[in-house]
Specification:
The protein has helices at residues 15-26, 48-51, 66-71, 81-92, 109-118, 132-144, 170-183, 187-190, 242-256, 269-274, and strands at residues 5-10, 30-36, 61-62, 74-77, 99-102, 123-126, 153-160, 191-192, 207-213, 220-226, 231-237, 265-267. By secondary structure, the chain is an alpha/beta fold. The strands form two sheets. Strands 3-2-1-4-5-6-12 form a seven-stranded parallel beta sheet, with helices on both faces. A five-stranded mixed beta sheet has the order 8-9-7-10-11. Strand 1, helix 1 and strand 2 form a beta-alpha-beta unit. The structure holds NADPH dihydro-nicotinamide-adenine-dinucleotide phosphate and the ligand O=C(O)C1=N[C@H](C(=O)O)C[C@H](O)C1.
Length: 275
């Protein structure tokens, strides 16, 4: 008999969380067993199917997550950093091995370190972007960034909808880290987060970021490599938020590995696309 993966979703009421819940409900090999909201949620104790304007599914939104974790094979996270950290740390002290797939962005350095610590005990896949297209351009950016830094400037720009909470986007950051890896430099030392006033000439070797927010744009990213005589532009546009949900399902299946589950560790979409 084919096994069914039991899934809990964190942040099921948000833009990403709703798309992921719908994808889980549509996946024949998955069952939604938990939907975790915060105590201030406007959608507390709602049937997830009804919340999505579908038939009742028998899984209701709740605040305590311990019972859902006990039932789950995997947790898919579409919430916000504080919830991600508290659930990841709770999972790290659980005896049974349940994986966490998080798409959340906007972690502070301290939160990222706490997530990495939790990943020593939990199989944890962190994806600043679930799109497989972004995973591909991440590799392209790393490859392009081998061009000599003295001749080629790297600039990253992103645009998102007016409601996005964090900047630069998680995707812009993962592209910046890919560029830094390609160049063999320390990302934090070379990142220029914004420019204003009398900035003077561009510092050689830096990676510049620019952010726009407006309207309903789902996500646009561009990495430009600029020399005096030519330019490379690597860009990506998301046309439909369901691409994130689809990628999250692909990542979840990779993490479950046919029911065996992955070993504790920090994984990324690169592991998924290279499999
Ligand atoms: N990796 C990827 O491919 C993608 C990642 N994202 C990321 O996913 C996250 C969620 O994005 P999005 O769905 O657009 O955001 P939303 O604001 O629409 O949803 C976030 C949900 O998380 C819950 N939540 C839990 N804790 C908090 C908190 N402390 N403050 C606010 N809300 C909280 C809220 O639900 P409630 O109040 O009901 O508990 C809220 O509905 C972001 O980090 C975003 O960058 C987004 C799209 C794609
Ligand atoms: O908040 C969003 O909407 C998105 N967030 C992710 C990010 O920060 O990169 C992914 C996607 O671009 C949409």
């Amino acid at each position: 008999m084919k096994s069914v993966t039991k899934v809990t979703v964190l942040g099921p009421t948000g833009r990403l969380g709703r798309a992921i819940c719908a994808a889980v409900l549509d996946a024949p090999d998955m069952e939604l067993v938990g939907a975790i909201v915060r105590s201030q949620s406007a959608f507390l104790d709602e049937d997830v199917g009804e919340m999505l304007d579908r038939d009742t599914v028998g899984c209701r939104t709740t605040v305590p997550f311990e019972d859902a974790l006990e039932l789950s094979d995997i947790v898919i996270d579409a919430s916000m950093p504080a919830m991600t950290i508290s659930v990841a740390e709770r999972m790290a002290v659980q005896a049974r091995k349940c994986g966490l797939v998080t798409g959340v962005t906007g972690f502070t350095t301290e939160q990222s370190e706490r997530l990495a610590t939790a990943a020593q005990r939990v199989p944890l896949l962190a994806a600043g972007n679930f799109s497989l297209g972004i995973a591909v351009i991440e590799a392209l950016v790393e490859q392009a960034a081998i061009l000599p830094a003295k001749d080629w400037d790297i600039e990253i720009s992103e645009t998102h909808h007016r409601l996005k909470a964090d900047a630069p986007s998680g995707t812009a950051l993962l592209l910046g880290h890919a560029a830094a890896r390609g160049r063999g430099i320390n990302h934090e030392a070379m990142a220029v987060w914004a420019r204003e006033g009398v900035t003077g000439p561009r510092r050689p070797g830096t990676i510049g970021y620019a952010v726009s927010r407006g309207g309903g744009i789902i996500g646009e990213h561009e990495v430009r490599l600029l020399s005096d005589m030519e330019e490379i532009s690597i860009s990506h546009r998301t046309h439909d938020r369901r691409v994130f949900a689809r990628g999250a399902i692909t990542a979840t299946r990779w993490m479950c590995d046919g029911g065996k589950g992955r070993e504790p560790g920090l994984y990324s979409m690169q592991d998924v696309v290279k499999a």
